[in-house]
């Protein structure tokens, strides 16, 4: 079954394998497949000429099925939701800029998250395929319509173990209270640890249409449409600004009393990173703020975004000089001594991005930026330069929980192929190898409510180490709650004939104690 994956940055499709890989083909089978392809070509290939099959038609579907949900399973440990590692195939058609180059040149110039030694070993194990035939030499020259497949052993970062509560499911919409740390749908290193997959795996809800999105670290009301018709209706309300969204946040310092309106235009600094700032060339933006309480150190503020720009609340609060208390981006000192208060940055966009990467890399919080590998490596050099504090011992590496650059198992590396594919309208295919499910997890499909001890036992039985996977050699301390939450919460979502609300978060209450 083919389905198209809707991720944070791209609508892409992938084929997945769980458990023992079945991508090894005999030389004879490969030769027979090649002979069949040559016959289908309709013309005799010249000596040394390589046949490339025509591209397959794109599947317009954007939902996930049980096959995708069955790729792996969850376990809970120390208050965190974790995912058993699994095999996963990233796929893409050859980009125009790759035509005439060798696979070696492409990996060397664009996919530096892994070493060339890794790719050579992956070739020997049949993990890299071209037009579904295992590659035996990275010096093969790429041609138009070449279909590339790279099998990786995929690890996902842990997220909050707090339950994903369904507030409403009335046949038209599904409304949930999203915990902080969960992406809405697959993106970057996250796939199963996302709202979409949790709803599918645990609640049996699939084929949902996203109405709006929340940042990964933001919690609160999240609305999905059950049908395309309802989705179009809600989209029209969004365009006509008939929907009212209310947020609550905790900011640094004493926010002014009374109503504060910020109408500064917002410009996207980097589409790839999603970084924004106030700029006269930006898009019209308007946010209304009102202080709810002040505890002597920080203020709880009600926020009403009247437009829907990326990071609008966070950027406007930064401009006003009251960044969200624990905002890892817009509260960062990388913006300068005044942290862009009044729109004063004092550096170019490139310098700003480099400063943010440098700060988060040095403080081992690079994952909070959700940066693509090539963006990081372009600023920081090879991945080994960004692993301060990592110690190697007996073929195992102990790394900070927040480190997101070291041995990233090819995950973000080829995810960026998917990102670019969306922009160039290229085709990605998706198929799940659900038939391998029983071999890997058949005996270990634990209940989501199992105790930590039982979960650890199941993990030790289900965890499959991969000989090429760098992530398998890393022992990461678990992230703390501070790493997984930002003090920004979507409190209410209101339309002409509906209103959905959540409870006030603990950090916004009067009796909350600030560290």
UniProtKB/TrEMBL annotation:
The keyword Phosphoprotein applies. The active site is at residue 215. It catalyses: a uridine in mRNA = a pseudouridine in mRNA. Residues 22-31, 436-456 have a biased composition (Basic and acidic residues). GO terms for biological process: enzyme-directed rRNA pseudouridine synthesis; mRNA processing. Residues 1-64, 422-456 are annotated as: Disordered. CDD domains: PseudoU_synth_ScRIB2 (cd02557). GO terms for molecular function: pseudouridine synthase activity; RNA binding. PROSITE patterns: PSI_RLU, S4. Residues 173-318 form the Pseudouridine synthase RsuA/RluA-like domain. Keywords: Isomerase, mRNA processing, Phosphoprotein, RNA-binding. Residues 32-43 have a biased composition (Basic residues). Pfam families: PseudoU_synth_2 (PF00849). InterPro entries: PsdUridine_synth_cat_dom_sf, PsdUridine_synth_RluA-like_CS, PsdUridine_synth_RluC/D, PsdUridine_synth_RsuA/RluA, RluA_PseudoU_synthase. The keyword ATP-binding does not apply. Belongs to the pseudouridine synthase RluA family. Pseudouridine synthase that catalyzes pseudouridylation of mRNAs. This is Pseudouridylate synthase RPUSD2. It comes from Sinocyclocheilus grahami. The gene is rpusd2.
